[in-house]
Amino acid sequence: MQGMFRANGGCGYVKKPEFLHKVGPHNEIFDPRASLPVKQILKVRVYMGEGWHMDFHHTHFDVYSPPDFYTRVGIAGVPADSVMKKTKTVEDNWTPVWNEEFEFPLTVPELALLRIEVHEYDMSEKDDFGGQTCLPLSELRAGIRAVPRTVAREISTSV
Fold first, then answer.
1. Which domains are assigned to the chain?
2. Boundaries of each PI-PLC Y-box domain copy (predicted)?
């Protein structure tokens, strides 16, 4: 929910979209599981991660080598829009470069959040969590954008 409240600077109130307030002519209400047409296609390019060495000790992820980072990018929203996709793993690099693009067809963009997670691949145990952020789609603008250092440093969006 923290991602949704970024749309108002974290002040604590986000007005629901108008379609959630309305009742149809036959008393129908919005059904998040209904099959709806695609309204918008979001394109996200994950370029690189930077600054990890400043947030974590050099042996935090791997004792004997630099980390093997990958990024999961997805949408949190209505069931038809919710999905997670994954970049390739960049081995032994504190500043990974992925340069991968993902497309997300969205049926209800008004309720969608772009979710970005960074993990460190671990062959012998569960992958290590590096960081995450959620951004409301309504706040995204086209172009290259940076997100907080504990997450993939630079992304590009086309709305």
1. 4-158 (2.60.40.150)
2. 2-20
